[in-house]
User: Fold this.
Amino acid sequence: MKRLSEAEFQVMKAIWTFEPPITSSRVMRHLSGEKSWPIQSVVTLLGRLVEKGFLRSEKKSKERLYYPLVSKEDYLQFETGNFVKQYHDNSFISLLSAFYHDRELSDGDLNDLQEWIRNRRSD
Assistant:
């Protein structure tokens, strides 16, 4: 899997919001609240996402339909894994330490973490 640019990720977030197939105009309407991209920019980004294997497209009448090939969960897992590998040498403890460096963990947080560890050990 390839990494997405920030703009490509914004388009994919819009795509993941809807039930496929999704049209470029629907993506554009969704993004219009956040971005002021011209339609051609959105179309270009959609084309890049097709080339990268994140979307499949098909022409139907005057409209082009897009179908996600990568789920949001799979992409977030991929990105998170890259982040942990690059910045924390694949160390879960390093990641947790960085995240909670100056914060106190509540009893609920610690209980949730213990439960998560217990479930991982039984798998």
The radius of gyration is 19 Å.
